[in-house]
Amino acid sequence: MTWECFDVSIKDRIAHIVLNRPEKRNSMCASFWTDLPAIVQDIDCKAKARVIVLSSTGPHFSAGIDLEMLAGDGVGRADRNNPQHGAAFIAKLIQLQQSFTALEQCRIPVIAAMQGGCIGGGVDLVTACDLRYATSDAFLTIYEINVGMTADVGTFPRITHLIPEGVARELAYTGRKMPAEEAKSFGLVNEIFSDQNTMLEGVMKVASDIASKPPLAIYGCKRAITYARDHSTADALDHIGVWNASMLIPQQITEAMTAAAEKRAPQFSDLPIID
Q: Which residues are catalytic?
């Protein structure tokens, strides 16, 4: 299947989703918001891969939401004389937010590989991913303040769990660029590479390592970490206890230990397909 904004390939249990509108700085047009969750859910529900790598093309990772959407009614920001404007805006915004929440809710890890600018909606996107890697020239900016907006598609609920609140507030209030090195110093970026090719090579090695692990246990880790982020320690302990009581598979543990003893690659079952 072809997509307006993306190229999608799957190899060695790794799905590679590539933003492919470099001439538009990979800005997020109307189809982006419906196609991205559709692609992610198809990969996840059909257990087509064990990890997703999300990368981009051209000099910049993403310029954020397409200006044509902002100028028109694509996000419900126009026609304020309409008495139903507020309700229409909220309904459309929820759709946009869910496009990135799909990355967080899917059962497999999602890795973002950023080059150049990660601007506005690009920050919403990568903060919904599990891991973030960058080239040395990369930068992130909560750009919305520079055009008179408050970021609303997902940056604030997530970035405040990834970097200190004071730093998040500074970025939000000033719209300044945070270079990759600074982002790494705060833990927002896992690692920095000299260029995009080197980054993708390194990211694929990480993805391959993840893909070699038991998928159900990886799913459990993702669920447990996200749950712990949003709940108290006591609730998170109860959650992981119930999870393992129902999901832990002794045969998987045995296979992992046997494979290690026999110095071979373990063989794990994929996640179940969701109809």
A: 65, 121, 124, 144, 152
